[in-house]
Amino acid sequence: MKRVLKIITVLAVLALGVWIFRILFPGDEKLIRKLLVEAAETAAIKPNENPLFKLAGANKLVGFFSSDAVLKVEVSGVDVRSINGRDDLLQAVTAACATLQEAKIQLHRIHVNVDPDKQSASAQFIVTAYLNGGSDPMVQELKLRLRKIDSHWKIAQVETVKTLGM
Fold first, then answer.
1. According to the model, what pLDDT value does residue 123 have?
2. Residue 156: CB partners within 8 Å, gap ≥ 6?
3. By percentage, how much of the chain surpasses pLDDT 90?
4. pLDDT of residue 26
5. Residue 41 CB neighbour total at 10 angstroms
6. Model confidence over 73-126: pLDDT tens digits?
7. Is the distance from CB of 163 to CB of 100 less than 8 angstroms?
8. Are 95 and 126 in contact (CB under 8 A)?
9. CB within 8 A of 133, min separation 6: which ones?
């Protein structure tokens, strides 16, 4: 009986150790998912938000991207917009924040694939954006490439996934 109790205790300690290790050192996929959710939360604009907070949010949002990031996004009813680098991205985000009174961003069906080298990854997901209090969301599927830079994941490329209706 004591032997069984010792084995159960050892297994419980091992399971606890693995659980703590996974919390302290999450896998790359989990880190990327967290980055994407944080970026979406940062992109959100609260109603009547102070313009200084909007500017701070724009700067924080740009921090999720690599310095040479490339964005090619097609929004229905608008041409393809290409943005190259953080400076262009900051200008675009700041301009968008200036015209928006409110933005609620949600991510759905996030799929992350970390490359075997563990230095790059891809992600694909659906973004739902409710703008200026509207009830009709703007829905877009995006594909991203990410790179690990100085041990941190950064978004390097964003492009719209073309669907049959586009």
1. 95
2. 65, 66, 68, 69, 70, 120, 144, 145, 146, 147
3. 33
4. 66
5. 13
6. 876 656 777 889 888 988 888 888 888 888 898 999 999 999 999 899 999 999
7. no
8. no
9. 47, 101, 102
Angle of helix 85-99 versus helix 51-62 axis, rounded to 10:
150
Strand partners, 106: 128
pLDDT value, residue 131: 85
- Residue 48: left (phi > 0), alpha (psi -120 to 50), or beta? left
φ, ψ dihedrals at 26, nearest 5°: -65, 155
Per-residue CA distances from 113 to 10, 27, 50, 116, 143 (Å): 34, 12, 37, 9, 11
User: Which domains does the chain show, CATH number per domain?
Assistant: 27-160 (3.10.450.50)
Tokens 């953080």 belong to 86
Backbone angles phi, psi at 161, to 5 degrees: -90, 120
Say what the pTM is.
0.78
Give the pLDDT confidence score for residue 40 in this predicted structure.
92
- Please, which residues bridge with residue 142 across strands? 125, 160
